[in-house]
Design brief:
alpha/beta; globular; about 30% strand; 16 helices; 33 strands; ten-stranded mixed sheet
Length: about 675
């Protein structure tokens, strides 16, 4: 997902108090200062941020590229005597190409702004700071100066909410510019997660840091690992605190009464039942009443108990892990990650210090090119590619390998043979300059993303899908005859060879159907409960729509995708449900969309629970609510077999021996709860 800094989800971001602003003397008209920052990911510099300040005006250029895409932004900020912006213009493009032309002005005590969601005004009654919808990370430099000058480091914000920063730690950094003693802060307010950043002794921005992604002052690039570790520690401390507050472990069995249970094998609800859990396992499922003596009791009030959902296309991080639990996602297939970072996260989840789903791992292998996704293991030759396969097999905890866009197609058959000889499945994108048919013949077990498969029907052999062409070329899909020989051949080949598909339907809905100023359908059911940054994002296009013809072509492409998935279902091709959007609330939309492709709610629930777990070899212990299985399930008031939207209102989530109430978790992320917390009656009180 995009965020306010025009980045991808790799950058982890993000009450009126007494204000005491200290006016700063403006710089001399002729004096200009230049600040340069390096954008760092996986020990590589992928781009730069350059800010030039002259007098009261800052001009910023920000650009980086990862995986053949990234934001390009040019900003001009004019600051008042108190450091607050009085004008701000932002022009450029987001990661997926949507044009940005954002403007803010404060004149005569009235603030006005225009972003992709529309235009608004507000009267200034006290010092208030504007929070752009799409801006570079240099925004933090502006925030830091203003908030550090404030008595309680907090200010009201436009368009809504407030911003505040909290001191966390200090760190000494060595680099080409000498030693810098920096202070770490967390910025919170308008988004679900804090931004962790450093300022130097003068209060100037030194670095933005997350567990994977760092933007640091030029000359200090070698500190990125240290900064990633610091961000990981700060994030972990926050999330450990939330876990300690919201994770409930009971010293006796837990009984959930008066609840209907979804049976994914029968694809139906049971009669009202009682489910008893002990030591993290389901002890019994009994229709009607059961003996609950000695147990903690939750009255299900006639609601539904659903097996934990599986997110089949995740790239898990710490913040997203907890949000997935709150959304009933107890199993995640990670489709590529920083291997060391994910190792550490899984260890913390298994130890119970952090919340998160159970994880099935995929080994990401990418070819080196100017368009590489800097993830997993990058290779320069077939020999290196085979060594990467062996490395993943040797670890013992990877289920499959995932091949990516810049891989040389000629190396794939050997990689497939080596993977299968070592007991690993093979999934992936379709590498550039080949097509899905060739990868199916080479032995893929699964194709990742529906666009990767369908592009083979519209691209010429020399066209390069390592760029945004793999998205913009979708405009050609309406011309494809879904009942023609070309489509029939590909689908027949998949059915014949047992090749599955991971369509990531919801991300394509966002790419193809989101429009500036229009509320995205996929976010409509929950956006009112979200912080203001997410509410603005919900009215922002992802792709650049340059004409009515492009608008119609993208909408037509989405219908073609739905039609293709429907035909895949008819062919018996196994379809897995994953988002590539972080899961959590977006997985609910992913599941909902498959109704457009002919799935019924019971079929969707079965595929997202037991059938997904069984596909990954976990059906004996996960995916259904049966005696002896792990107690992974969630409670909703409604009946999702009748109306799938019922999965969006979750009262309780159980993962093994730990119970969570989402309404206790969401306020920590600035999200208004969707329902109440059910009463838990201890044994002594019954």
């Amino acid at each position: 997902m995009l965020n306010r800094f025009g980045c991808t989800a790799l950058a982890a971001l993000f009450v009126v108090g007494a204000c005491a602003h200290e006016a700063k003397a403006p710089l001399a008209e002729t004096q200009a200062t230049t600040e340069t920052f390096s954008v760092r990911l996986f020990d590589k510099t992928l781009g730069q941020l350059v800010a030039v300040t002259t007098s009261d005006t800052v001009k910023i250029n920000y650009e980086y590229r990862n995986n053949g895409r990234g934001p390009t932004l040019a900003e001009t900020i004019k600051l008042g005597a108190d450091g607050l912006p009085v004008s701000w213009t932002i022009d450029g493009a987001t990661t997926f190409g949507n044009e940005i032309h954002e403007k803010f002005a404060l004149e005569g005590g009235v603030a006005s702004w225009t972003d992709t969601a529309g235009s608004s005004t507000a009267k200034m009654t006290e010092p208030t700071i504007y929070v752009p919808q799409n801006a570079s990370p240099y925004t933090l430099a502006v925030y830091a100066k203003v908030l550090l000058a404030d008595a309680d480091r907090s200010l009201p914000a436009w368009p809504a909410g407030s911003l505040s920063m909290s001191p966390l730690d200090t760190v000494r950094i060595e680099g080409a510019g000498g030693t810098v003693d920096a202070s770490a802060y967390a910025l919170v307010g308008d988004d679900t997660d804090p931004a962790y950043f450093l300022v130097d002794g003068e209060g100037d921005l030194f670095a933005l840091m997350s567990p994977r992604f760092v933007i640091v002052r030029e000359g200090y690039e070698e500190a990125d690992e240290k900064l990633q570790d610091m961000a990981t520690r700060l994030s972990t401390l926050r999330l450990e605190s939330i876990q300690a507050e919201t994770a409930h472990r009971y010293d006796a069995p837990l009984a959930i009464t008066n609840v209907r249970v979804f049976d994914p094998k029968a694809k139906a609800m049971t009669a009202p039942s009682t489910v008893i859990v002990e030591n993290g396992l389901i002890k019994s499922v009994k229709v009607g009443k059961a003996d609950t003596k000695g147990a903690y009791v939750v009255d299900g009030q006639g609601g539904s108990l659903i097996p934990g959902l599986a997110e089949m296309h995740g790239h898990m991080g710490e913040d997203g892990a907890l949000k997935n639990i709150a959304a009933g996602v107890t199993l995640m297939r990670d489709m590529g990650n920083d291997n060391a970072v994910l190792n550490e996260l899984i260890t913390k989840i298994e130890a119970g210090t952090l919340a998160g789903p159970r994880v099935v791992r995929s080994g990401f292998i990418e070819g080196k090119s100017p368009f590489s996704s800097n993830n997993g293991i990058l290779v320069n030759s077939q020999e290196e590619a085979l060594a990467a396969v062996d490395w993943y097999a040797d670890q013992g905890d990877f289920w499959q390998i995932k091949i990516y866009n810049s891989m040389n197609p000629e190396w794939v058959p050997a990689m497939v043979a080596r993977a299968k000889a070592r007991g690993l499945r093979v999934s992936g994108h379709v590498p550039a300059f080949t097509n899905a048919n060739t990868m199916i013949e080479a032995g893929y077990d699964e194709i990742t993303h529906i666009n990767q498969l369908m592009l083979g029907w519209v691209l010429a052999p020399a066209e390069d899908t390592r760029t945004l062409l793999r998205l913009t070329a979708l405009q050609r899909l309406p011309k494809v005859d879904l009942n023609g020989e070309q489509v029939a051949h590909t689908l027949g080949l998949m059915a014949e060879k047992g090749v599955a598909i991971d369509p990531t339907f919801a991300i394509h809905e966002a790419l193809l159907l989101s429009r500036n100023g229009e509320l995205q359908a996929g976010m409509a059911d929950y956006v009112a409960n979200m912080p203001v940054a997410v509410q603005r994002e919900a009215k922002e296009a992802w792709s650049a729509i340059g004409s009515p013809e492009e608008d119609a072509a993208y909408k037509g492409a989405f219908e073609q995708m739905a039609g293709t998935i429907r035909r895949m279902k008819d062919h018996g091709i196994f379809i897995v449900f994953g988002t590539d959007l972080g899961g959590a609330l977006t997985l609910h939309r992913e599941l909902e969309l498959y109704q457009k492709a002919g799935f019924t709610p019971p079929e969707i629930l079965a595929r997202a629970t037991f059938e997904a777990a069984d596909y990954m070899g976990l059906g004996e212990e996960l995916g259904s609510i049966e005696p002896g299985k792990k107690a992974d399930f969630f409670l909703v008031p409604g009946n999702p077999v009748e109306d799938l939207k019922a999965i969006k209102t979750i009262r309780l989530v159980s993962k093994g021996d730990t119970v969570y109430f989402p309404s206790e978790i969401y306020p920590h992320f600035g999200i208004k709860p969707f329902t109440d917390v059910p009463a838990v009656t201890p044994p002594a009180e019954k």
